[in-house]
């Protein structure tokens, strides 16, 4: 399927959060690229973190597709001075992707440093708070790549679900039946096709009950 990436700025009420594993298999990388193209071809904006793996893959797709202007990157580290200085950015850790962030910033992405709190905070705390900030910044919902044992992307999905926004998922390296739950409810085919075919959508228990009664 060829998807046309719509250039330009997103609408005020159409920003999706994106998340996924920091270590991607080849299949996971393909899934990340596909999901990103679905979001960007819809004309929506995207808010994403700053880690290697899914975040970096999403950033790369947006930049290469000329849609960096619709990227909102929330970082758990400090300002990235330049591509040449990226690896010396304050606050980075082994899972950070400062070079991807530097390239996106140069292409017009909006980058927010220290979105998870100041440098004195432990890295794990900054990463968790950054993920919470990504969840709070989206307006349309979240689309995540999930494994059976996901952590950060699961926190993102649960946080967005608590806001009552749609959460879409793509299983990575696992079957759909093995996806972690976001609470009381289930994963089911997204029949509304909010972003396109082939995605799963979280259905809270109350929604499932209402659908069965109709």
Q: Please count the helical segments.
A: 6
Overall pLDDT score: 90
Class inferred from helices and paired strands:
alpha/beta
The first-level CATH class name: Alpha Beta
Q: Please provide the count of β strands.
A: 8
Element pattern in H and E: EHEHEHEHEHEEEH
Domain module count: 1
Percent helix range:
25-40%
User: Unreliable stretches, pLDDT < 50, 5 or more residues?
Assistant: 1-12, 209-213
Task: Give the overall shape, derived from the CA principal axes.
Answer: globular
Strand coverage percent: 15-25%
Biggest sheet, spatial arrangement of strands:
4-3-2-1-5-6-8-7
Cα end-to-end separation: 35 Å
What's the gyration radius in Å?
17 Å
Largest sheet: 8 strands, mixed
- CATH topology grouping: Rossmann fold
CATH architecture: 3-Layer(aba) Sandwich
Written description of the protein model:
There is one protein chain. This protein has 214 residues and is of the alpha/beta class. The protein has a single domain, classed as Rossmann fold (3-Layer(aba) Sandwich), CATH 3.40.50.450. 33% of the residues lie in helices and 17% in strands. The protein is built from 6 helices and 8 strands; from the N terminus they run βαβαβαβαβαβββα. The protein has helices at residues 26-41, 54-64, 98-106, 123-137, 152-162, 205-213; strands spanning 15-19, 45-48, 71-74, 110-112, 141-146, 167-171, 185-189, 200-204. Strands 4-3-2-1-5-6-8-7 form an 8-stranded mixed beta sheet, with helices on both faces. α2 (54-64) packs parallel to α3 (98-106). It is globular.
List descriptors.
214 residues, alpha/beta, 33% helix, eight-stranded mixed β-sheet, Rossmann fold
